[in-house]
Design brief:
Blueprint: H1 2-15, H2 26-30, E1 33-34, E2 45-46, H3 48-53, E3 57-58, E4 63-65, E5 72-80, E6 83-92, H4 98-105, E7 110-113, E8 116-120, E9 124-136, E10 139-150, E11 170-180, E12 187-195, E13 202-206, E14 211-215, E15 221-228, E16 238-243, H5 265-270, H6 275-281, E17 285-291, E18 294-302
Antiparallel strand pairs: 1-2, 3-4, 4-5, 5-6, 6-10, 7-8, 8-9, 9-10, 11-12, 11-13, 12-18, 13-14, 14-15, 15-16, 16-17, 17-18
């Protein structure tokens, strides 16, 4: 079962590496359900926390509607014989799915045709279907469906509980924080305070499920990618930021790091409020907590961590 769980995570992390214009992306869709720790009478639980945060109202046990955008998410789960079928139908108002189809085709899912991508294991399969001009209560949508068919004798544990915040397509205002750890003089707590209210002067936009853009109070900008935690296993949710690396001229080796970022706390403090100061904060992994409409990101760093020299490169033979 663990191998199957890891496979689906790997597949959908690959799919989520690009972007397309709807509220929920493939990785977001599978985070809307869980089959962990359920009584035998239930097949799935709906993680409606993420739906509600995205403006969807619960209409009944299986239907959620965003009254502002008119988008719809519908769930179904049933047993027939030895097979359990779980289905998530997302009726989106997006019409251009070119990028979505392209990245699905390059992911771990096998491309059957332009509108169907799937991955089959001996006792379980995953599918993404695309249906254009689908009707729901008389209105036309693009229908994105995630379907899982499971004939394993032991059910559950395929869809882990996900308590991360749905950051995609959202805008936040932020400030940074750097404090000494009183319990250890060699450690510092690095943090970012983010709010949906305009109480800070700097802004970060999560453009989709993978890309972000920062606009500082000085109007300077920079970009990067982010990955939210998918499986928390009881740990706090986390987010990993990585800055966009500068373009490398043809024939040159791509840099593994962002040149010019502060590499210690003293240098960071000297660079305060500069572009590279803020870039430092958006090139790390953080745990975070949610307080009402605020996100508090933090991580401990050690000033005296040993520096490991890179292995010597081998010359081409």
């Amino acid at each position: 079962m663990k191998k199957i769980t890891y496979s689906i995570v790997a597949i959908f992390m690959l799919i989520a590496s690009n972007s397309f214009a709807q509220e929920f992306y493939p990785l977001n869709l599978i985070s809307l359900i869980t089959d962990e720790n359920l009584p035998k009478s239930k097949i799935i639980n709906i993680n409606d926390y993420q739906l509600i945060e995205k403006g969807f109202d619960r209409m009944d046990d299986s239907l959620y509607v965003n009254k502002k955008s008119s988008e719809v998410v519908q769930f179904s789960a049933n047993n027939k014989g030895n097979t359990t079928t779980i289905r998530i139908d997302y009726y989106t108002v997006a019409t251009d799915l070119t990028r979505f189809a392209n990245r699905a085709g390059k992911s771990g899912l096998d491309k059957v045709n332009e509108n169907l991508f799937e991955k089959k294991f001996p006792n379980i399969s995953y599918q993404i279907e695309i249906k254009r001009n689908s009707l729901f209560k008389g209105k036309k949508y693009t229908l994105l469906s995630f379907i899982c068919k499971n004939s394993l004798a032991e059910k559950g544990g395929v869809f882990r509980n996900n308590d991360s915040y749905p950051l995609q397509n959202s805008t936040w205002y932020f400030d940074t924080d750097l404090q000494e750890d009183k319990s250890n003089p060699d450690e510092y707590v690095v943090g970012i305070k983010m709010s949906e209210e305009k109480k800070y002067n700097n802004k970060v936009e999560f453009l989709d499920d993978a890309n972000f853009k920062v606009t500082l109070a000085s109007q300077k900008t920079f970009t990067g990618t982010y990955t939210s935690s998918f499986i928390s296993n009881g740990n706090p949710p986390s987010i990993y930021f990585e800055l966009t690396k500068p373009k490398t001229k043809k024939g040159y080796v791509e840099s593994l790091t962002i040149v010019g970022l502060p590499d210690n706390v003293a240098e960071l403090r000297r660079a305060k409020n500069s572009l590279r100061y803020y870039q430092y904060f958006f090139n790390k992994r953080y745990d975070y907590t949610i307080e009402q409409k605020d996100l508090l990101l933090s991580i401990k760093i050690n000033e005296n961590m040993p520096v490991i020299a890179p292995a010597p490169s081998r010359k081409n033979k």
